[in-house]
Structure formats: structure tokens, C-alpha cells
């Protein structure tokens, strides 16, 4: 069903070689199997789990060297960690979370600290506007150490680990380009960018205006959010706005305007 959703979004399959250059971005449904559960309450080896992982690449388009992961776990908790790109298509990072321990009849919510590592590998991609995005992942979670921060020492806190595979819930989509004319004074028109983010909510990174008036030379373009342009002569001109988001996806819109 996930494959059908991706195909319906207009994304096209990418070549396997694109896994190294693919952008890791968006929400993934991760299906896992517990590989180790030593003394961890509520867990057992072989247990199947389902989690949501959200990746946010911070660089402008392409494969980033740092990706922020929001990793959902049991109980509605979310762990945030930074993954580093260790090789093409492979990311890893260290994180930690706290868990309660009862000591001397009192529950300390931060009494235990679990240290963990996550390694993610891109194993499938799809193209959006010709750019590869990660669509399938394999991942490994390991908790090699749990620390007791209470005075009640001497009790083992356990260790656990799991392996995951996952697919993108949906892929990032391009922004929606929109603008309007805000005023007209003689042959001078003022405009306002009203563009909105695409699916995935990537911030808009740049905008480019073309006023369709080449006789005005360098004044025929702008990168501002509220530009104005004085047209060189009476006539009808086509004004075009192109916006690009942080994922490198873009959209354009054009409107004709008649100048007296």
C-alpha cells in the first residue's frame, strides 16, 4: 500500500545508484524486530514492533552530512538525535533517554539513562522533479549500556537492540507558487509573494521574479518578497514567479498585466 501511495504522488523510481546521493527527508513507517532484550521490562527477543521515524535534513537540497532524527518509541516518547553521514547513503548517531527507577520507595523519573546508537542505510529511492529522495530504509538500533543514577546500585538495568526496515509515508512535494499585485501607480506595479510550502513543509529558500520586460535590463528580475517594477512602455506583460524550497524542489506561476 505504501508503494501505491508513493507512485500516486507523482514520484518516479530512481536508479539503485542514487541511494548514495538521495536526500533523507520525511516521515517513515519503521517495522522492527527485537534482536536483544536482556532484562528490559515489556520486551522479548523476536518481538515485532512498529515505530514512526521523522528525518529532517538541514542543508539546501541533496544529501546532507547532518540529519536530525525524531525517533518515536513505546509510551509515546520521542527521542531526538543527530545522524552523521558516514558514507554515501549511510547515517549513524548516538542518543540517550531517561527512564524511571524506584529507589528507597521513591520513583525517580530520571533515575536510569539508556545510551543507544542508530545506524540507517538508504536502500530505495524515488525521484521528485528529477531529484532522488530516500523511500526505503534499513536500520539498526543498539542499546549497549544503561546507567543507574540513583543511590540504589547493584541491580542490572538490562540492554536491548532491534533491526528495522521502513518505507516513506509520503515523499516531499514541491511548493505552491502564488503572488498578487498589491498596487499600481502609473506604470509602476507592486507585487507580493504568497507562495506556500509543499508536502513535507520544507521552508522556502529562494524566489526569482521575471517581469517580462527585457527592455528594462537588470531591473527585469528580482529576488525580493515584495518587489516593484516600473515597466518601460504601455502594453501587456507576463510576470513570472519561481520559488524553490530547501529540498531543491521548485514551482512557477505567471500572470498577465496590462500597463496603460
Secondary structure elements and pairings:
Blueprint lengths: L1 H7 L3 E2 L12 E13 L9 E10 L8 E7 L5 E10 L2 E14 L2 E23 L2 E18 L10 E10 L10 E7 L2 E6 L10 E7 L10 E2 L5 E3 L4 E11 L4 E10 L1
Antiparallel strand pairs: 1-7, 2-3, 2-9, 3-4, 4-5, 5-6, 6-7, 7-8, 8-9, 10-11, 11-14, 12-13, 12-15, 15-16
Question: Could you please describe the fold and organization of this structure?
Answer:
The chain has 260 residues and is an all-beta fold. It folds into two domains: 2-168, Lipocalin, CATH 2.40.128; 179-259, Immunoglobulin-like (Sandwich), CATH 2.60.40. 3% of the residues lie in helices and 59% in strands. It has one helix and 16 strands. It has one helix spanning 2-8, and strands at residues 12-13, 26-38, 48-57, 66-72, 78-87, 90-103, 106-128, 131-148, 159-168, 179-185, 188-193, 204-210, 221-222, 228-230, 235-245, 250-259. The strands form three sheets. An eight-stranded antiparallel barrel has the order 2-3-4-5-6-7-8-9. A hairpin with a 2-residue loop joins strand 5 (78-87) and strand 6 (90-103). The longest helix is centred in the first third of the chain and has 7 residues, at 2-8. The termini are far apart. The relative contact order is 0.17. The model is unreliable at 1-9 (pLDDT under 50).
Report, as a whole number of angstroms, the end-to-end distance: 55 Å
Decide which structural class fits the backbone: mainly beta
What number is the mean pLDDT?
A: 92
The geometry reads as elongated
* Secondary structure: helix percent: under 10%
In the predicted model, the low-confidence regions spanning at least 5 consecutive residues are 1-9
Q: Could you say how many structural domains there are in total?
A: 2
The CATH C-level name of the largest domain is: Mainly Beta
- The CATH topology annotation of the largest domain reads as Lipocalin
Largest pleated sheet = 8 strands, antiparallel, barrel
**β content, as a range?**
over 45%
- CATH-scheme architecture of the largest domain: Beta Barrel
Radius of gyration, in angstroms, nearest whole number: 25 Å
Q: Strand-and-helix sequence, N→C?
A: HEEEEEEEEEEEEEEEE
Q: If helices are DSSP runs of H or I spanning 4 or more residues, what is the number of helices?
A: 1
